[in-house]
Amino acid sequence: MPVSGDDEDWRAGGFALYLHWPFCAAKCPYCDFNSHVATRVDVGRWRRAMLAEIDRVAALTPGRRLGSVFFGGGTPSLMPPALAGDLLERIAARWVLEDDAEITLEANPTSAEAARFRAFRA
Q1: What is the pTM of this model?
Q2: Is the pLDDT at 59 greater than 80, yes or no?
Q3: Which residue, 1, 111, 117, 120, is the most exposed by fewest CB within 10 angstroms?
Q4: In which domain, by residue range, is 75 found?
């Protein structure tokens, strides 16, 4: 279907960003996602890799407006809150976030702790 010159080019529109944290405390029997039980995670290595991936995607999407950031997994609520903060800071430095941008972090109710979520909010 041809697009008229009045239509906004889809490449200039908003988009969503998904960040995958594949680690869990236990593998849920209903889960078909790429997830792994880990007792220890090299957070520094994951941080470097995720920041590099954000930079790579940003180079491919210049000028795009970010409407949503979704942390999925695995159980991303188990990642250190400081890592989530580092990733969000890099994202904000690479893209313009919509005023009403949504930031979502999946959690398993069995590992949801109020203090941990306060740390994510900070």
Answers
A1: 0.84
A2: yes
A3: 1
A4: 10-121
